[in-house]
Amino acid sequence: MNDVLERLRAEAGPSPEYEVLLTAAPDGLAASLTSAGLPLWARELAAYRLGLAGDRRAFEALVLLLNHREPARCAAAAEALAALDDPRTARAAAALATNNLRTAYALQPVRLLTALRAPESVPALLATLGRLLSPHEPYWRVALACVEGLGALADPRARELLVRAQSHPRLAVAATAALRDLGR
């Protein structure tokens, strides 16, 4: 949490709005999510604080941030979404993880699916990993997160894909460990 707040403080610079949002009540934070003219850092701060507080008014803003091109924003959104405990979160994360056009930004949705352990988690991780097992896949980190997630979830449906993942140099060690986890 402190890393997120420090990053956002640096983005805010001397803006007094940072301190206002840092201490604002939930209704004020929720209102800022739809206020015109606020910079991205301000919306992220409001959504992050609401999410950690379990206020579901942050859901849409956090899902948008989970799909952002900046990894730090995605990670903060994933943290807040996990704390939010909204039943829509797993479906949203699965949609982002399995979107072929957004694979470059799928790392945090994949990790979030693993943390959520929702019914959508294993099918989404299988679908994502299945398309990332080509020999020269540039998104191997997303594939690795899928392998690690499938190992953590220990679902036997993952066996075939994990065996295939063992033939990929960057995935082999994690796939072997995940297969061991399936045996337990």
Structure notes:
With 184 residues, the protein is mostly helical. It has 2 domains: 1-86, Leucine-rich Repeat Variant, CATH 1.25.10; 101-184, no CATH class. It contains 12 helices and no strands. Helix 1 (2-12) packs antiparallel against helix 4 (40-52). The protein starts with a helix and ends with a helix. GO terms for molecular function: lyase activity. Keywords: Lyase. This is Adenylosuccinate lyase.
The name CATH uses for the topology of the largest domain is Leucine-rich Repeat Variant
**How would a textbook summarize the main sheet?**
none
**Name of the CATH architecture of the largest domain:** Alpha Horseshoe
| Alpha-carbon distance between the two ends | 34 Å
Shape: elongated
User: Tell me, what is the CATH class of the largest domain?
Assistant: Mainly Alpha
SS-based class: mainly alpha
Strand content: under 5%
Measured as a percent range, the helix fraction is 55-70%
- Determine the number of helices (DSSP H or I, runs of at least 4 residues): 12
Order of helices and strands: HHHHHHHHHHHH
Number of domains: 2
